[in-house]
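> forwarded from #structure-qc
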């Protein structure tokens, strides 16, 4: 029996997430990834799994055509950026993608599955955006009501989204799935004189609280005990300033100026004893969006230390410890034995069965 065909579309940013989505649905479907040519090497997938187009105009033209050939079209990242229009260029970029995606919905509505990452961008009444008086949430709100199958990144976000959106569309099918797959047990050799901590995400001081880490590692006892492994690249001059601060404080660390491939991410991540998330509340993690830190920890099967606001309902408590203040983090770092981690809840096969049922695939 031939497998149903599944086209996974990602042309914006979430390449690591798209790769795991590919693996997730490949358990049952014949999956291809469709992207821009400049992004085709970012997924870490075989060339025969990737379809690409050089320009956005030809990308959308091909998307309309390919959609006739596939049973399901999974939009990994809908046009949900930016939060608000800051300049004329932002306006034209948003309208361009919005109109062309709208055309895709009208042509292939029955086949579409949308993955929503930040639910506040689709809710006009949300206090985060309502004070900005932006028209974008209203357009996205209309946009999402035309789509019948929606995927969220956590059970908490699924329930929250249902409460705000589903009231006006009782037939909408909403599900969630966790990034989950069996990872290689390959052991990587490295210097074991110090315990390695994987610092998750791109090095971005506007989104992450590196000052907290600098304050924590001002203690000599911690400097001599740990080595920091930055698992995301330095993206701009602000990143360089933070890196220089770590150098000035004689903190032992490794970082990269270049994009970190999936292979290198796995190698560095597997070498770490545990992982840490430094996200701030500024980007609405926890209440309106899920931090990618939880997905990274699941992929690497590593213990995670995260700010308590990132997981308000403790959905990921089986492998995560939470901190609120500096002293909480210091205590967690000094524990001789960390909690026993359990990833059985995130087993791929069981999650896939549930998602298929909930989305009626």
């Amino acid at each position: 029996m031939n497998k149903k065909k599944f086209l996974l579309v990602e042309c914006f940013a979430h390449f690591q997430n798209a790769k795991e989505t590919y693996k997730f649905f490949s358990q049952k479907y014949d999956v291809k990834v469709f992207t821009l040519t400049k992004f085709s090497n970012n997924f870490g997938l075989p060339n025969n799994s990737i379809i690409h187009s050089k320009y956005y105009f030809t990308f959308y033209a091909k998307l309309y055509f390919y959609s006739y050939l596939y049973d399901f079209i999974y939009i990994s990242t809908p046009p949900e950026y930016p939060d608000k229009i800051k300049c004329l260029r932002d306006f034209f970029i948003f309208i361009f993608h919005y109109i062309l995606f709208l055309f895709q919905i009208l042509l292939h509505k029955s086949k579409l599955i949308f993955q929503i990452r930040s639910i506040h961008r689709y809710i006009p009444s949300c206090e985060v955006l309502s004070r900005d008086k932006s028209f974008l949430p209203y357009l996205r709100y209309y946009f999402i009501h035309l789509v019948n199958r929606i995927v969220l990144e956590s059970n908490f976000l699924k329930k929250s989204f249902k409460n705000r959106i589903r009231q006006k569309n009782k037939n909408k099918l909403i599900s969630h799935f966790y990034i989950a797959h069996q990872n290689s047990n390959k052991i990587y050799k490295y210097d074991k004189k110090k315990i390695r901590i994987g610092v998750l995400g791109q090095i971005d001081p506007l989104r992450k609280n590196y000052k907290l880490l600098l304050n924590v590692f001002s203690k000599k006892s911690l400097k001599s005990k740990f080595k920091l492994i930055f698992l995301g690249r330095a993206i701009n001059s602000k990143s360089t300033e933070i890196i220089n601060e770590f150098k000035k404080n004689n903190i032992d660390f490794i970082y990269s100026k270049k994009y970190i491939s999936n292979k290198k991410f796995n190698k560095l991540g597997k070498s770490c004893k545990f992982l840490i998330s430094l996200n701030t509340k500024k980007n609405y993690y926890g209440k309106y969006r899920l931090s990618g830190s939880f997905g990274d920890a699941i992929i690497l099967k590593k213990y995670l230390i995260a700010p308590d606001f990132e997981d308000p309902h403790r959905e990921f408590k089986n492998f995560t410890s939470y901190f609120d203040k500096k002293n909480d983090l210091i205590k967690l770092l000094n524990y001789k034995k960390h909690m026993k981690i359990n990833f059985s809840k995130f087993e791929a096969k069981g999650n896939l069965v549930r998602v298929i049922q909930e989305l009626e695939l």
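QC bot note: The mean pLDDT is 87. The longest helix spans residues 88-108.
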